[in-house]
Amino acid sequence: MSHNTFGHLFRVTTWGESHGPALGCVVDGCPPGVRFKLGDIQAELDRRRPGQSRFVTQRREPDQVRILSGVLEDGDELVTTGTPVSMMIENVDQRSKDYGEIARQYRPGHADYAYDVKYGIRDYRGGGRSSARETAARVAAGALARKVVPGLVVRGALVGMGTKSINRANWNWNFVEDAENPFFTPDPESVATFTEYLDGIRKDGSSVGALIEIVAEGVPAGLGAPVYAKLDQDICSNLMSINAVKGVEIGDGFETARMTGEENADEMRIGNDGNPVFLSNHAGGILGGISTGQPVIARFAVKPTSSILTPRQSIDKDGNNVDVRTKGRHDPCVGIRAVPIGEAMVACAIADHYLRHRGQTGRIA
Amino acid sequence: MSHNTFGHLFRVTTWGESHGPALGCVVDGCPPGVRFKLGDIQAELDRRRPGQSRFVTQRREPDQVRILSGVLEDGDELVTTGTPVSMMIENVDQRSKDYGEIARQYRPGHADYAYDVKYGIRDYRGGGRSSARETAARVAAGALARKVVPGLVVRGALVGMGTKSINRANWNWNFVEDAENPFFTPDPESVATFTEYLDGIRKDGSSVGALIEIVAEGVPAGLGAPVYAKLDQDICSNLMSINAVKGVEIGDGFETARMTGEENADEMRIGNDGNPVFLSNHAGGILGGISTGQPVIARFAVKPTSSILTPRQSIDKDGNNVDVRTKGRHDPCVGIRAVPIGEAMVACAIADHYLRHRGQTGRIA
Amino acid sequence: MSHNTFGHLFRVTTWGESHGPALGCVVDGCPPGVRFKLGDIQAELDRRRPGQSRFVTQRREPDQVRILSGVLEDGDELVTTGTPVSMMIENVDQRSKDYGEIARQYRPGHADYAYDVKYGIRDYRGGGRSSARETAARVAAGALARKVVPGLVVRGALVGMGTKSINRANWNWNFVEDAENPFFTPDPESVATFTEYLDGIRKDGSSVGALIEIVAEGVPAGLGAPVYAKLDQDICSNLMSINAVKGVEIGDGFETARMTGEENADEMRIGNDGNPVFLSNHAGGILGGISTGQPVIARFAVKPTSSILTPRQSIDKDGNNVDVRTKGRHDPCVGIRAVPIGEAMVACAIADHYLRHRGQTGRIA
Amino acid sequence: MSHNTFGHLFRVTTWGESHGPALGCVVDGCPPGVRFKLGDIQAELDRRRPGQSRFVTQRREPDQVRILSGVLEDGDELVTTGTPVSMMIENVDQRSKDYGEIARQYRPGHADYAYDVKYGIRDYRGGGRSSARETAARVAAGALARKVVPGLVVRGALVGMGTKSINRANWNWNFVEDAENPFFTPDPESVATFTEYLDGIRKDGSSVGALIEIVAEGVPAGLGAPVYAKLDQDICSNLMSINAVKGVEIGDGFETARMTGEENADEMRIGNDGNPVFLSNHAGGILGGISTGQPVIARFAVKPTSSILTPRQSIDKDGNNVDVRTKGRHDPCVGIRAVPIGEAMVACAIADHYLRHRGQTGRIA
Description:
The structure is a homotetramer.
Chain A: E1 5-6, E2 11-16, E3 22-28, E4 35-36, H1 38-48, E5 65-67, E6 71-74, E7 77-80, E8 85-90, H2 112-119, H3 135-148, E9 153-161, E10 164-165, H4 173-176, H5 190-203, E11 210-217, H6 231-240, E12 245-250, H7 261-264, E13 268-270, E14 276-278, E15 286-287, E16 290-291, E17 296-302, E18 312-315, E19 321-324, H8 338-361
Antiparallel strand pairs in A: 1-2, 2-3, 3-8, 4-7, 5-8, 6-7, 9-10, 9-11, 11-17, 12-17, 13-14, 15-16, 18-19
Helix pairs in contact in A: 1-3, 1-8, 3-8, 6-8
């Protein structure tokens, strides 16, 4: 697998498997002088951490991050030096015996078969490199990316789960992080609905997909480029790189295919303060690949995990037909924990473009 | 604008504006010994060419491609030498006076405002680098990419236009290229519907979005990687880099957010010939970022062009409120000509991953 | 041949063969608002141009550059827009019959044999992609790079030719560009020596190597990085990419292997103006990979061209022993014309690092 | 510091400072199925390890490598899976108090001043990222690179130290690794000379430069490219990225500047086995940027470390003139330990080009 790196000036390389001793990332190109606390990184990892409710995998991982390079201590803060920031998270609760019986079987919907064709060798324990544990490294990198762009706030929410959706009229960002909210939903009324629905899915040993929305505020106008380094392109690429994501869209997204030019284009006026004001945000904050200063809005679809209790037809490595039933410990809705991951990936894309824009044009400090 | 290059081993760099003397691309890393005819490239360009029906822009461009490097002649064929293939297309029908009156205005929905914030300087003639003319260079590169992977067939079709959709039961690939079909629709019955609908849009000076589907057959299993060089990620990134695209999806895409694990995962059996057979293709030919040997299926949404006759509220460069009405020559549905462009971008992604897979693993010739 | 691109933010891609219709480059990432005249680019090309004295190849090429994209006209100036700048130079005097007789022979010292092993196909006319004509594209790109860094002056000189060397005590930059100086030597007294020496070489149908020195003044302190993006590393990489270059060094270079720490390290004092002053420049303006503000000094060795009249033992494509005698039109000392090429490659490296430094640190405007 | 990564398909990212908790590397793109023992990696690290004779720094570091990802165990062997190989080495003997007194001083010849200008913040303990400890990570990566290319053997030797040189007539590769040889010299007779010379340097608190030669045998013909991905260019770039290297050359290198075409070009004949034979190797195994199948030969110059006991004039961060005397524990000749580092960097370049050649051309398995 070539190229486990993304970003150009804010570059993230991740490494590690589900059942190895550790996983981590190297963030190269972080500007010098960025101040943060170790707790800022840990807090993001805690949001993604498994085992926090009955709706996510029961694997118990403390996901404690260690920073091995690239920072100096200054009181209770850390300051980046401009050199590579290496972050490591040890795997604690591997329990690889869970996976023993399916070592030679290809689980339908998983990467097992494709992996074997590609590499001829496969770490069958927990999906190896395809495991969602890899995303912890992204969240750590994203926590640092958030500090790079002054004023940037990146938040995400689960807006759909299987056949159920939120009511957007109830959107409350504060509720997303509420301790009583195991779903990252912004709609308090949806909790009961999602709870009942997902309990049913979980008890059936089934799984279900989800729809996530990420909103980035404080993105300066001017990030991106007209064609191959479009800000929306790099955001979508980053989101598509998350396990189980099957679709991404910006602003009104797929809905724009059904719209007219009159309905779609956001009109502008000069505001009272003399600055441009957009009268709507169908574009999701990006026009022609370049940020406009409006909130950047992206959505992505997470498929249901293919690890389910219902036996499914498949084959094994030796060419036999088999029935596969995936026991182990799995998320009935992996999309829930995709919320902080999606935020991290969007933050990384924006931080990278912020540095690139500064590099090429010198038009922002 | 940094980085007008995409791909790693099959690398494409494009250049050129709508109203400059020419545009083109450099394809670097094309394997030596690839045989093709100049007509193969031209044929793809002709599919994308403007002025071929009343449903696309009336700009008259012959879009004749010249190959300036990287090939040797062998009879009526060209053979690549392994060095950069430079292709150039001259702009003939610029007619830049059309754009004179909006040189200082920001057209709503266009990149004008974002562009000025980013660069502080802007080629207002026809959108400059943001013009859809840039995509001719992609189509030329894609025509070469198609020759790199033995057996690869990449086809596309328009499956939705505004509020109208095709009937998938009527899908006929041959009809897509039919001379009587100005829409790249695979459904013969849809032609009348689309014609009437788009004539209405056109006469109103309006525009409408579209939904495009690309299907790649003959993709060897094993292309891609588990995380950051996922084949689906790079396909989506390539498609998102096309002007006016606001969303992309693979296989069942956004629909998977509403599905259960039982509905989504494609089951497998050993076929009569001893090879694996998938019983469905919800995954769109890619599992865990790696191709499975099934057809690769992607869809993307193209927003309506923002160039419409209805006056729209906007501002100008000097901070005045203005009403903008875009006359010029424009496509009422830019999504139609996006079909060959989408094919080209998918072909480039696959060719690149084919070479990368061969490089890392040596598992294909 | 993969990757005909160099640079990260100021990225140059070149294309074209000696005997194709044209060659050129695409400069991607050039900042917007850079002002220059077409004549600035042409002037650099004219310095590299063949046919200007009896000491360089008699091939007659006007090397007129056309700029096809990425600029707007403003009076008699051109202004970059931030989009890719495509530059093209047509080949006029190909005379490919010269090469006919050695189409199947491997010329000793040339890339012919290695090329055939690599690609299995080869443009034998004038070396194809290996031709020194490719360097015209670099000189064009370098002419633009010079404009990117305010105050940057990059100059080069030939300091050695075969067994003859200049006397550094006579160094005169103005003389390098003197019309009476066909060698880019900075030492007026060396002209007679070099003339007599090279006339002898030329009449014998032989060739000779050369040593070139490049000095870049006005390089801001802080460009580069401690390890893998060292400014000296990227300068050396750029110089090594020039045809026939076999060695590169920075500052005292190879001589430092023979020095002690006391002799090598440049001492510092606070100058009268309160700024740091270096008391010597053994380091060549770069410490730990980062520019210090002193002049950056690099030297490179150009081997003698292998195209000589003396018959040499070799083999042909069919496995026969043959004697090869290269007639054609060649430079008796290719190192002479390497002076402007070396300047261009150093300018490109500095421009790229200037943008990268601005991107990562924001510490220069 | 952006871009602590080198290589395209065999990509190495390193991280870590001299006085942080650890350092390491991530090797991305290593082919699957590469077999090795942990001891193979450790053996290379042991060759570079400090504290092994009085001629190198007395810092005591076990330099034990841990592999954290990308491999499966198979008996006493490890097998790569094709996913990123993360390797970590803990720092044990930091003793940062040694550096306390020069925290605000700029040591002449070191990166201190340039670093502060660039980043505005600096880890003064042991040079931070500029420390030669960083090279342990390269050696680990290089040990893996050696396994990627079948039949590849990369060896290095110290051929000059200060004013002393070896006698090439005595060259003995076996002696290089002899336990009685603290210098990696290939000339047994040179040991006495170097010992006496370096003892003198060491007792004076001085330091001295060195000249290193690397020879790679078993490099298949066809690796590299005619211009910007020249094998010699990438080898030189890799070598220049090593701390304190000031010059690099290939084959006859700088000597070619003084040669004629007749002296320089290597003649060829058909050998008894029908294969091409070169009659000399002035080219150092590379013609036109592409390997010929002959041994690849590179040399590089390492400057004397600037850490010496003699007081030197300098300035401090606050703008004062100071005299700097560097105590600490340092190598009197850092060039000695550069031998395994140089080998590692050459091995990485060759492994990368091997995969790139296979990717583009498919002409090697």
